[in-house]
Specification:
244 residues; mainly alpha; 3-stranded antiparallel sheet; two-stranded antiparallel ribbon; 5 strands; 6% strand
Length: 244
């Protein structure tokens, strides 16, 4: 019997189809395995909307008791909140048995993580993480015209929790600005008053400063006198010494 010419190509196509199906099944298995792995509390917290300014703190830093000195007095349910952050199983003792749900621990865990975060971003590892965010424009750009979209840095007006929301510091005009609505509820103490200034001193070559320039108010082309009620005030605050 004579063989039909299309039988061999048909078998070839079927074998390729079976190979593709097997690869697809393997990919789905790997994805299901990855998705089945529980997400850590720190990754979950930093992935929330409005938490783009935060960096993920290494577990080794949190587990070092020296780095957490003094925080137990500032955070209620400190031990349980720390266990929640590190994804540790809660010990069965009298204190933990009085906590019916994780939702009660959540605000305390967020407060504790924020205070640890304030310290962590001032370390070498934390500064490096924030440098990547700075270069990527995660913190936005200065709205002042003469700063020409200089990248900004998060800063708190106080190191005490609940004293005010996070602000954005411009290293060019050296002033602070309000954040947009998405970040308006982020506590400024989670970044502290030290970070942006330490960052600028640590990475001076990564801060692209613009020439010092200030707006000059004019009426019909004439500069308004400083003695006028609508004249310029304290222009020297915008001036910087010439670069040598």
């Amino acid at each position: 019997m004579r063989k039909l010419p299309y039988i061999r190509p048909l078998f070839f196509c079927l074998s390729k189809l079976f190979d593709i199906m097997e690869e697809d099944e393997e990919m789905q298995d790997s994805l299901s395995t990855t998705s089945s792995q529980p997400q850590s509390w720190i990754k979950w917290f930093c992935s929330l909307a409005g938490h783009e300014y935060y960096c993920e703190i290494d577990d080794d830093y949190i587990e070092d008791g020296f780095n957490l000195t003094g925080l137990a007095q500032q955070v209620p349910l400190y031990k349980e909140a720390l266990e929640l952050i590190l994804d540790l199983e809660r010990e069965e003792d009298e204190m933990s048995s009085t906590i019916p749900d994780v939702s009660i621990l959540q605000p305390h865990a967020e407060l504790l993580y924020g205070l640890i975060h304030q310290r962590y971003i001032n370390t070498k590892a934390g500064l490096v993480q924030m440098l990547w965010k700075y270069k990527s424009g995660h913190f936005g750009y200065c709205p002042r015209v003469y700063c020409e979209k200089t990248a900004m840095l998060p800063v708190g007006q106080s190191d005490i929790p609940n004293a005010g929301s996070v602000r954005l510091y411009c290293p060019n005009c050296r002033d602070i600005y309000l954040c947009n609505g998405k970040h308006a509820n982020v506590d400024g103490a989670h970044f502290g008053t030290t970070f942006p200034h330490l960052f600028v001193d640590t990475f001076p070559n990564d801060i692209k400063l613009k020439p010092a320039k200030a707006y000059v108010a004019r009426i019909f082309g004439f500069r308004i006198s400083e003695r006028s009620s609508s004249g310029p005030r304290m222009q020297w605050l915008r001036m910087t010494p010439p670069q040598s």
